[in-house]
Amino acid sequence: MGYQREGGMSCQALKKAKPFLAMVSLQFGYSGMYIISMISLKRGMSHYILSTYRHVVATIVIAPFAIVLERKIRPKMTWPIFLRIVLLGFLEPVLDQNLYFLGLKYTSATFASATVNMLPAVTFIMAIIFRLETVNFKKLPSTAKVVGTVVTVMGAMVMTLYKGPIVNFVGGREQSHHKASTESADQHWVTGTLMLLGSICGWAGFFILQSFTLKMYPVELSLTAWICLMGMVQGSIVSLIMERDLSVWAIGWDSRLLASVYTGIVCSGIAYYVQGIVSKERGPVFVTSFSPLCMIITAVLGFIILAEQVHLGSVIGAIIIVFGLYTVVWGKSKDAPYSKGIVLADEKGTQELPITDTIRSSSIITTTTTTTADSNNDAANSEVSKIPLA
């Protein structure tokens, strides 16, 4: 019995930890995307072509699994569902990724990943607009969510408006100091930041619309395959319009192929699927609350691999953003007991009804049986009284 209890408790703990482990793993995947994409873009690859090839790979990888594994549970495709999928294929694969790659090209991998920390705040605002979240200033958790959102926006403004001196963590990088500062001076930080903010708005809208679409089309693999397919089609159209030179479509055994395959499998195929499952269980705000971990991982990798220089404004803004973000997450976590209590109450109520009916029916049967037995006894007594005495 003891081993069974311990096994049951460990399985239950693992089940509760699955969403956290999934989202943490995705942040490592996104960190690799930032570094690999930055390398391929610096070597001349068009971000329009990268986004298109990314979803070509994702469609090829995910579609067979969706066709085979969900063939019996896939609901019928309708026009409202299809139009939502088309919009999903535009918001993240086309709008978000192209604006993000432009912002990444104009800034740096560390700055881009740090700016993405605004994603939970923007998602929270959109969730309030679409009534996925509620705000009550009389309760501390709701106030914390609002204050955290404002602080996160302030941190992003600090990163945008204040660049500051270069923070040199390791003294042995003086040879590349002048070159890096010259390159950063030529970068369009304000324009790149505005593009990154537009990318974040598109990404947050994607999460909100995905949560609504999964209620109408609750098959995560099929939805992922459709989104990748629509992203591939729309991305191809945008690429043909923006890139007139057909030579940019050429790809070889180099960083371009690596970036396309890696981002397609990890950051589109797997990410869309995992985010859909976690969003269905915990909500879109929970999904977007792990971006600071990605910032930390990317900052370390960017400093080591790309020899990027970190500016003081990015450090101060990132600290403010992380503080505001976890204020929002704390407020969100305090809302969970209320919703769980409501769900448990509903489940308890639905379980009590049949039990009550069973008790009532059993009592009726007992009363009927007793009445029948009494009438039989009375009839027997009357028969005995009619027998003549000798």
UniProtKB/TrEMBL annotation:
Residues 371-382 have a biased composition (Low complexity). The chain crosses the membrane at residues 20-40, 52-69, 81-103, 109-130, 142-162, 189-209, 221-242, 257-274, 286-306, 312-331. The keyword Secreted does not apply. Residues 371-390 are annotated as: Disordered. The keyword Transcription regulation does not apply. GO terms for cellular component: membrane. It is a multi-pass membrane protein. One of its GO terms (molecular function) is transmembrane transporter activity. Residues 25-159, 192-329 form the EamA domain. It is found in: Membrane. Keywords: Membrane, Transmembrane, Transmembrane helix. Belongs to the drug/metabolite transporter (DMT) superfamily. Plant drug/metabolite exporter (P-DME) (TC 2.A.7.4) family. This is WAT1-related protein. It comes from Juglans regia.
